[in-house]
Amino acid sequence: MSTPLPPDPGPARQRAIYLPGLAGRRPLAPVAAAELEARAREVMSGRAFAYVAGGAGAEQTMAANRAAFDRRQIVPNVLRDSSRRDLSVELLGRRLPVPLLTAPIGVLDLAHPDADLAVARAAAGLGVPVIFSNQASVPMEECAAAMGASPRWFQLYWSSSDELVASFVRRAEAAGCEAVVVTLDTSILGWRARDLDQAYLPFLEGRGIAQYTSDPVFRAQLREPQPALPRPPVNFQTAAAALAQKANFPGGLWRNLFSGEPRAAVQRFFATYSRPSLTWADLPRLRTYTRLPIILKGVLHPDDARRALDAGVDGLVVSNHGGRQIDGAVASLDALPGVVAAVDGRIPVLLDSGPRGGADVFKAIALGARAVLVGRPFVYGLACAGEGGVREVLQNWIAELDLTLALAGCRSLAEVNPAMLREQA
User: Which of 101, 276, 320, 365 is the most exposed place for a label (fewest CB within 10 A)?
Assistant: First the structure.
């Protein structure tokens, strides 16, 4: 289903933009990261944008993520024959055309009605793996069906129901997912000031719980007595929220108009979602549920990386959840070298949180990342132009990485190394 990359994806992307420009056509989504975010803010509702763009507390971790990239400067080598570049990378036994994956981001219908399906189609067309979100707006099976043979992984939030966890990973296997990405840094929601200022949490409207409401174990649990949620004051807005719960439940508004299942699903979700008691001792149980490789996402400390090796996991994602969980946490890029050194090449290390383009990908690879997760920028592209916007964001990242590789004097990712970076004091 994917289209092979041209031998020179950077110049090819430039031509694809400049030539239509003669006819007055401009890209669907802005190319520069700041303008892309600004355009998304214009087209999204205030509370939807706050949910996607916001971070924890005073958003110091978000700022640190960017500062870590800004401090590092690329030192190119000249007079190297870089006329042909190889952007491919081997990851979990599969050769990928580029070192990119889409990060698992939930509630994508806040950005565009096509939500996860648009992302799945756009990424599949480029051979970029998608990490299906545990908090998706579209069930994993529908997204997998739209992707053909293109690679996909599944993000797992380990909930308080082991039976549900087992069901999720069984479904991921059946949907052709090639890895399970266990997110460790969100066992409880962080203090997210923008969302709190909006007094808005999309899950209360039944958004972002499509993996749950499409799951047979979860649906069976809806027949049990549900833990009660405090009832808010009754007014027009609470009535609208109740209707939204029904509209977002499988079957839609009219089918669920007189059903209590949508509210029960929200209640059950909040009773099930988080598991702050999760420990290293729980990991072996996941091996009994699935044969898929297990990736741990949210590792920042070298000691945790070494413990993950001892636990026999298959890969790590260095991530602070895009700065959404702990205010004042270490930047992911700053944590990357320590984690890479701790695993000593035994398992792949990926990076998430902070990159905003292909030059940032180059820096992460120089510091030892095997691949990089694209996060908020693809959501902004989705908000701007649906599937086409996501596709353009990914194409732009690939193009900038290719051009950076060429201009730095490299012919492949294997030639990118720490000596090509200089860190400002």
Answer: 276
> Same structural domain for residues 65 and 176?
yes
Give the integer Cα–Cα distance in Å for 321 and 326. Answer: 9
What mean pLDDT do residues 74-91 have? 95
| Residue-level pLDDT at 274 | 86
Same domain, 399 and 297: yes
Give percent of the chain above pLDDT 90: 92
Number of Cβ atoms within 10 Å of the Cβ of 29? 26
- Cβ–Cβ < 8 Å for 44, 110: yes
Distance of CA 253 to the CA centre of its chain: 29
List the beta bridge partners of residue 421.
74
pLDDT at 1: 57
Residue 188 sits in the same domain as residue 238:
no
**pLDDT single digits (tens) 279-309:** 999 999 999 999 999 999 999 999 999 999 9
- 3 state DSSP class of 168: helix
CATH of the domain at 367: 3.20.20.70
DSSP annotation string for 290-352? --S-EEEE---SHHHHHHHHHTT-SEEEE--GGGTS-TTPPPHHHHHHHHHHHHTTSS-EEE-
Do residues 187 and 50 lie in contact, with contact meaning Cβ atoms separated by under 8 Å?
A: no
- Whole-model pTM: value is 0.96
Percent of the chain predicted with pLDDT > 70: 100
- The answer to the question of residue 1 being in a domain is no
Q: Which domain holds residue 356?
A: 27-194+275-423
Nearest to 181 by CA among 112, 259, 248, 105: 105
User: Predicted confidence band at 38 (pLDDT cuts at 50, 70, 90)?
Assistant: very high
Q: Which pair of structure tokens corresponds to residue 87?
A: 């952007």
Please name every residue paired with 295 in a beta bridge, in sequence order, or none if there are none. 181, 315
How many domains, the chain? Answer: 2
Please give the angle made by the CA atoms of 371, 372 and 377, to the nearest 5 degrees.
155
